[in-house]
Amino acid sequence: MFRTFSVISALPISSLFPYLYFMIKDFGIAKQEEDIGFYAGFVGSSFMIGRALTSIFWGKLADRYGRKPIILIGTFSVIIFNTLFGLSTSFWLAISSRFLLGCFNCLLGVIRAYASEVVSEEYNALSLSV
Predict the structure, then answer these.
(1) SS3 of 87, please?
(2) Cβ–Cβ under 8 Å, residues 104 and 73
């Protein structure tokens, strides 16, 4: 179960880079080919900025309302915002969908807290590493 959520959490980070160059090129925002990496950096970093801004908020919500609803919100947000990003037709829609994906991607911290609560004390280190 924990491996499934770790794949869902890592999917938005690692699946982006193989096709981001071609996506930025198709948007036509870069004047020269050398500028494509500049704009790709904005799209790639917008996910982490959104994640950094909201991670404490999601942790507090998980403490208050429980881990399971927050995990479900995070899982569905990955599906919705990754699809929206894949279907984006402009640079700003791509940045916005990646930023919102980062804002709603609350899985990593919540799943680690959940793993430490569910597993017995002797297997705690193993559950957190998995």
Answers:
(1) coil
(2) yes
How confident is the prediction along the chain (130 residues), in pLDDT tens digits per residue?
555 555 666 667 777 888 889 999 999 898 898 899 999 999 989 998 998 899 889 888 988 998 888 888 888 988 899 899 989 999 999 999 999 999 988 777 777 777 777 788 787 777 766 6
Q: Euclidean distance between the first and final Cα of the chain, in Å? A: 10
Q: Which residues of 107-119 are buried (b: 16+ CB within 10 A; e: fewer)?
A: bbbbbebbbeeeb
- What's the rounded Cα separation, in Å, for the pair 81 and 87? 10
Where are the domains positioned within the chain?
2-24+35-129
Residue where the block lists tokens 């911290």: 109
Per the listing, tokens 């940045």 go with 95
Q: Which residue has the tokens 């597993």?
A: 119
